[in-house]
Specification:
The chain is of the alpha+beta class and 405 residues long. It has helices at 21-30, 46-54, 64-71, 76-81, 92-103, 106-127, 136-140, 142-151, 162-171, 179-205, 214-222, 233-264, 266-274, 279-289, 321-324, 359-376; strands at residues 33-35, 41-43, 59-60, 133-134, 295-300, 304-306, 309-311, 316-320, 381-382, 387-388, 397-399, 401-403.
């Protein structure tokens, strides 16, 4: 039996990163609120996460107190992760989210769909006839880079470094880091900032269409003189980085995880091929069963009690999304991968005011990628050599070798 009372997220037992679910099960049943050696707390039950996400008075998204010792108070990573949308409270969160939401309306997303289909089909053409492919490098990771690149109108020939920058910056959010990983993250922020300063200068000189170009919208908001509406230069740059990062890693994981799960559960692949109208519930079950984002965080603004445990003001809470999405109090047979599961009110996109602003776009990317891939390569096989992403927070694959035709 797992010694769950001594489980430490910053120093987990061997095998946890590759397969955290036995630990999650033990937390749910025996320690749903678990104090950590550093003074933080692990929260794993669905009901607790749901309440925390909705209560912005008692639970703050601001991470300055946590990230200052982690990254250094004057460091590039600290500046980025305390200025971007996901780790901010109003008024910055309200301002940037409003701009993003206005760019991701149902009408705007419908306009993206033909380009998304063309992107996916072009990638599938590139896979055809090859003896083996990597479903991450050659397919899953390419789709969100193009979609988000289009959203900010990043020139095609300049998108090469975006994935590596994103992986380094988001990788710095892991519970524990090596000096090399920290240095890589700092360098990625600096290089990304330098690139965006140049891109922003070009866009100011030649604005794009604010109906389709989020960067032009952000620049327009930056110029607003209305009280509380002005974006600073740093806010503008760091939220461009956030937009490019947030839409990339999690969507790559969604697509890669879906292809891996349908391979590993062949009866579910057969079911989906026979009933293609299950594509939407398939995407939702992938999001629940192998959540692309496994961890969230909040900080308490007052003393609270969760599950009978008193938690002091200013405590960092690790919200175990991957555990909550397998809570047997909410999901019948949570360990079963069921592409027809209904209802499926998972927390893969968080909840409350911070619910993922790009969730509709992510679902569309996953749906189109999966249904068109299966239509082209219904008998694909994943080969030996798959490589896990090696992260606790973001669950996906670094490599997924396959034979498609």
């Amino acid at each position: 039996m797992v010694d769950i009372q001594h489980f430490d997220l910053t120093n987990p037992p061997a095998g946890f990163v590759e397969d955290p679910f036995p630990i999650y099960d033990a937390l749910l049943s025996r320690a749903p609120v678990l104090p950590q050696p550093d003074g933080s707390f692990l929260i794993s039950r669905y009901g607790d996460l749901d309440r925390i996400y909705r209560d912005t008075a008692l639970y703050s998204s601001d991470k300055k107190a946590v990230f200052s010792p982690k990254f250094g108070p004057d460091s590039p990573l600290f500046e980025h992760h305390t200025t971007s949308l996901v780790f901010s409270d109003p008024p910055l969160h309200t301002r940037v989210r409003r701009i993003m939401s206005s760019a991701l309306t149902p009408r705007a997303i419908a306009r993206m769909e033909p380009g998304l289909i063309a992107t996916v089909d072009d990638l599938l053409d590139g896979l055809q006839g090859k003896p083996s492919v990597d479903l991450i490098a050659d397919f899953a990771s390419c789709i969100p880079i193009q979609v988000i690149g289009n959203l900010l109108d990043v020139p095609l020939e300049e998108r090469g470094p975006l994935r590596d920058w994103s992986l380094a910056i988001l990788g710095a959010l892991e519970p524990s880091l090596t000096e090399a990983e920290l240095a890589l993250g700092h360098r990625a922020v600096e290089e990304f900032k330098a690139y965006l300063q140049d891109l922003i200068a070009r866009r100011r000189a030649t604005p794009g269409d604010p109906e389709t170009d989020v960067l032009t919208r952000l620049i327009g908001d930056e110029k607003s003189e209305a009280a509380g509406e002005r974006l600073s230069e740093i806010e503008l740059i760091q939220n461009c980085i956030f937009i490019l990062n947030a839409g990339h890693e999690t969507t790559t994981n969604l697509i890669g995880n879906a292809l891996a799960l349908l391979h590993d559960f062949p009866e579910q692949r057969i079911r989906l091929l026979a009933q293609p109208d299950l594509i939407k519930t398939t995407i939702e079950e992938v999001l629940r069963f192998r959540s692309p984002n496994q961890l969230g965080n909040r900080e308490t603004t007052a003393m609270v009690e969760i599950g009978g445990v008193v938690i002091p003001r200013g405590s960092n809470l690790h919200l175990l999304i991957g555990a909550a999405n397998r809570d047997p109090e909410i999901f019948a047979d949570p360990q079963v991968f069921d592409i027809g599961r209904k209802p499926n009110r998972h927390l893969a996109f968080a909840g409350g005011p911070h619910v993922c602003v790009g969730l509709t776009l992510a679902r569309l990317e996953g749906k189109i990628a999966l249904e068109r891939f299966l239509a082209r390569f219904p008998t694909y096989q994943i080969l030996a050599g798959r490589r896990d992403g090696g992260r606790m927070r973001f669950r996906g694959y670094a490599a997924l070798p396959a034979k498609v035709s």
